[in-house]
Amino acid sequence: MRLTLRPLSMIAAAAGFALLGVAPTAQAIDEEHYRKARQMIEKSIDYLRTQQDAESGGWSVPEQGPNIPAISALVLNGMLMEPGIDHTDPTVASGLKYLYSFQQDDGGIYDVILANYNTAITVSALAHVNTAEAGEAIQRAIPFLKRLQWSEDAIPGREDTAIVDRSHPFYGGVGYGGSGRPDNSNLNLMLQALHDAGVDCEDPAFQRALVFLQRTQMLHKDENGNVINDMPYAEGSHQGGFIYATSPDQDNVGAGESKAGMIEETLSDGTVESRFRAYGSVTYAGFKSYIYADLDRDDPRVQAAYDWIRENYTLEENPGIGSDGYYYFLIMMSRALDAWGLDQIGTLGIPVELTFSTGEYTVREGEQIEVALDTGVDANGVEYTFDRPIVFGTLGRVESSLTFQNAKLADGRLYEIVEIPGHTSQSEGDETAKSGSETFKMVIRLEDRRDWANDLIDKLAELQNEDGSFRSIDDRWMEDNPVLITAYSLIALQHAIN
Fold this sequence. Notes:
2 domains, seven-stranded antiparallel sheet
């Protein structure tokens, strides 16, 4: 170990060098993955063209209703993100005609059922169409979507919304209709539509949505003790991810609902209790909704959601619920991380215990000495190199941990300190000067930088069939429909190379 004396002001400045969770600017998607994605996109579009219903112009059109125009809108959304394809493309033109045919007198774009789901997804598709007809359809649909939100301005007399005030657990949410309560999936789709249509983030619809979002984020309080989620089911929770809804149905208002069930969580007071488990697709959806609402990156709600994503990063499953809704998870992930704007995620791995020794040093009364840590060795003998010091003060006492809290490894990776169990010292001297050495342990989790777009492309490449469609891995939430999951995958790929 080497000893370096520096002014305390320099030490304090070094402490703020890197904040955990804000990764450095990364390299863009590499050429190999870009070419792979381009080939996959072209194959997907070719496949979807063959699946269009010649008579109606839609996709997955049932012989007997009701129709779900949202599936056709997802197909068109993915196609219209492709350079060189616009409303003049014959396949697109026919598909748009199919969508327009479902616009109702109330402005919604649906066929009997799932008014928000169908209208919101259709608006997102039409936002890619530069025609007066598309603009008019969007302008009629937006007010309808806003009034499906549970709030003071909701449309009275409908089964999919009602007039409620801010104290109600349904406030700010949007739902399917059949279950009689709002959910995060529908809210995310509505906010996506408003964002795509250019609605200002200061619009009341976004501000009301924040109330519902907070009540579905498993984060009771922020680090300063401010209440984020005031629902009883979130008391003491600090997961940071999201659950599906504030209520399972209209008869159990405020009881909460997660499609991932329950987990045993160590709460903020140290006790262990059962709490709803946050999971992947709705956490990415909630995180994206915070971004669209233009919350600051360092907002505790945003950071808590992002930390959950970092800690649960995977493309092997929809984190928390396995294969259920896997392709929906991929489109939520790609949209959210594209909106976040960083090519890499600093994921956090398994905690490791490091042992350090400072070597010999001398410190006098009133002085502070900075000890640079060249290496730390974990239990397996692996060495880790750091580029930030620790500070010892009078008589060898550790004076500050700020200089290695939130620091970086010499190779640029961040790390998170999980625990500092304590240290031992061997020293001698009087009250005015002391010489000695210190040995201490620190438990950390190392950051592993992941190029999420490359990971996504590689995973989807494993799942794409020769005909351009994608292999179904689960039938829940209509994911045995090859057109639907191919549309999901196409949009996800477009965001990956965006």
